[in-house]
Amino acid sequence: MGFSISWIAVEGVGKDDLLARLDLVDSGFPDPENRAKFSFAELPSGWLLIYSNRFDYASPKRIAAASAGGFALGCAVEEHGQRGPGLQEWRSRLAGQP
Q1: What domain range is 17 assigned to?
Q2: Residue 69 domain-assigned?
Q3: N or C: where does the chain have the smaller number of CB atoms within 10 Å of the terminal CB?
Q4: For residues 26 and 90, what is the distance between their CA atoms, to the nearest angstrom?
């Protein structure tokens, strides 16, 4: 059991412009449980957040497209739990540039 998600947070870019760059459309329907493939939030800080139920959505190409004229961060999380004899129980990995 587990989950795989990713998100892109953007500052300095308007909502309509960001959605157009990422080929997304605001449905106008709330998704508090993140059941849709994509969810969108406007944070109190002014940042915009695109949340995806796909691990690979926050790709370097999409982060670059989202950041034009602003600043963007991307994150991908894949968590799966398994327990049993001889199984690795926990691991953390950071993939990035120094």
Answers
A1: 2-80
A2: yes
A3: C
A4: 37
